[in-house]
Amino acid sequence: MTGAPLDRAAVVAGYRRNCAELEAALAAAPPEALRRRSSGTRWSNEELLYHMVFGYIVVLALLPLVRLFGRLPVSVNRGFARLLNAGTAPFDVVNYWGSRGGALIFNRRRMAAKVRRLTAALERKLRRETDSGLGRRMYFPTRWDPFFKETMTLADVYAYPVAHFDFHAAQLSLDGTPGATAGPRK
After folding, report:
1. Who's near 137: CB < 8 A, 6+ residues apart?
2. Cα dist. 127→9, 76, 155 in Å?
3. Of the N and C termini of the chain, which has fewer Cβ atoms inside 10 Å?
4. What is the pTM of this model?
5. CA neighbours closer than 13 Å in the CB half-sphere of residue 161
6. 186 residues of the chain, pLDDT tens digit each
7. Rounded to whole angstroms, how far apart are CA atoms 17 and 160?
């Protein structure tokens, strides 16, 4: 992710594709498929779908952090990332249980509307970003997520939820097989 100029249209297309895929999966999956365990995680398919939506929620929280930490001295920035990395074990517990609990609130009936609101908000924010603003960078806790790099720009953060969503979509087992979403992947 880091380094290349952001293709805003491609990012927005990814947001919209993720929304459509989520809506299709939720519409096609019977309740028993959503309760089935996903492949390679401890979550049910419904919990994993919520976790995929949660990636978008995280981005809304990360945007102001990148703007703030991108202005701070590197030593403070790097120290904060080290502190977060030291807290990986508690983060993993919160991440797991947060997705379990989140799926109870934003379940199959509310999840699609939530991701539509999130992606619309991100699209509006992305439209207002300047190129120099998209280049602002901060250090990240690399142990928290395989898509977190040592440093990430604001542009990287905008692109993150699509990669996160697509990665986890391959772990869905809606028809009993891993990667079984509602339709062909584009």
Report:
1. 2, 66, 70, 151, 152, 153, 154
2. 10, 30, 12
3. C
4. 0.88
5. 31
6. 545 689 999 999 999 999 999 999 999 999 999 999 999 999 999 999 999 999 999 999 999 999 999 999 999 999 999 999 999 889 989 989 999 999 999 999 999 999 999 999 999 999 999 999 999 999 999 999 999 999 999 999 999 999 999 999 999 999 876 655 544 333
7. 14
Task: Output the 3-class SS for 86-126.
Answer: HCHHHHHHHHHHHHHHHHHHCCCCCHHHHHHHHHHHHHHHH
Residue 178 structure tokens: 């891993």
Cβ 70 vs Cβ 136: under 8 Å: yes
Residues 6+ apart with CB under 8 A from 19: 112, 115, 116, 119
Distance, in Å, from the CA atom of 121 to the CA atom of 15, rounded to the nearest integer, reads 11
